[in-house]
Amino acid sequence: MASASSVSPDSLKMETVDKLWQCVRMKVVSRLFGPRVTAVPSLQDACLFHPLCVIGKRVERSLPMRKVRSLFPLGPLLDLMDDPGDPTLTSDAKDGLRREAPVHCNFLHEQFLSGVGHIRVQVRDFYKESQAFPMAPRKKLYLRSSLPWLHSVRRLYLLSEVFCSSTCRLQLLGSRCVELHLEPDTPLGFTCLKLSVSPSGLVEVQSGREDNYPHPQARWAKYGSAQYISLVGGDTSEQRVSSLLSQIAFFMSHPSTLPVPRPARHMPGRRAERWERAPHSSGYRQVENSSEDRLLPDEEDSSVGVKGCVEDNESMKDAQNKG
């Protein structure tokens, strides 16, 4: 899919190029083709991103309020169909491909990455390939029922437009310049059509076009990796166990899930004060503490109480003498 050039004394490996491409691909593709175009996630897997190729999507929950979206390329649609030899679909797939004239440009993108250095991406021309969905009206399309991922995937993305280039070059600038020339007709970006697939393999086109592109924060699985084999193989038991263990560890260790003690009613050494709206007034007045808040009576209150008791006793004695 890509080969090193002999122009520079050193050449980059594809593994290194893929890591650099991960850092700059969004800005490069949006500037070249527009913000609605999705960048190819891996240049090593660029051959899997041609028109009428399929991308699978699986959504899982790692935490109660968090979704994990995994995307993985599945190859051409005709290789996944239940009847790949259908003459109508085969003819549409061959005759419907359109290739526009190349667009000449002098695109240059430079970016500094901490710990890596300056990265330069140069593109001199590109062209667009497009193909319509090969499905006749009132005709149902079924995938093979033997596909292992069919019961765990409910969304597919069908590539309809692909932007390719034969003059893309990546350079890593530093004490010595290293670069890599991509192979001719290397896909860099694409647009797609969202499809729904049932466990029986029935494929239908989704009506809404506002989200006919993969989620920008989705995780892409590189072809041949352990994650890719797990997603394509349909083995979800290990992933479910790991997600459950992560949830248990989160709830046992995260500070937001620990019980918080109830705060004290009042600060020590201070008396709580309450305020209420005074009648016929826009202000507030202080309310005396209740009996449960006042442990001992005040001195003025106690003296007033004793004086009142003495006066009551004297009045009773005068009444008895008069009687």
Strand content: 25-35%
As for the number of domains, it is: 1
Radius of gyration: 37 Å
- Percent range for helical residues? 10-25%
The total beta strand count reads 17
Question: How would you sum up this structure, described in words?
Answer:
The protein is 24% helix and 32% strand. The protein is globular, with a radius of gyration of 37 Å. It has one domain. The strands form two sheets. The chain has a 15-stranded mixed β-sheet that branches. A two-stranded antiparallel sheet has the order 16-17. It is an alpha+beta fold. A hairpin with a 3-residue loop joins strand 7 (103-113) and strand 8. It has helices at residues 14-33, 87-95, 226-233, 237-253, 299-322; strands at 2-3, 10-11, 38-39, 53-63, 66-76, 98-99, 103-113, 117-130, 141-142, 155-165, 169-173, 178-182, 186-197, 202-205, 219-220, 274-277, 284-287. The longest helix has 24 residues, at 299-322.
At a glance:
The chain has helices at 14-33, 87-95, 226-233, 237-253, 299-322, and strands at residues 2-3, 10-11, 38-39, 53-63, 66-76, 98-99, 103-113, 117-130, 141-142, 155-165, 169-173, 178-182, 186-197, 202-205, 219-220, 274-277, 284-287. With 323 residues, the chain is an alpha+beta fold.
Helix/strand layout:
Elements: E1 2-3, E2 10-11, H1 14-33, E3 38-39, E4 53-63, E5 66-76, H2 87-95, E6 98-99, E7 103-113, E8 117-130, E9 141-142, E10 155-165, E11 169-173, E12 178-182, E13 186-197, E14 202-205, E15 219-220, H3 226-233, H4 237-253, E16 274-277, E17 284-287, H5 299-322
Parallel strand pairs: 2-12, 5-15
Antiparallel strand pairs: 1-12, 3-13, 4-5, 4-10, 6-8, 7-8, 8-10, 8-11, 9-14, 10-13, 11-12, 13-14, 16-17
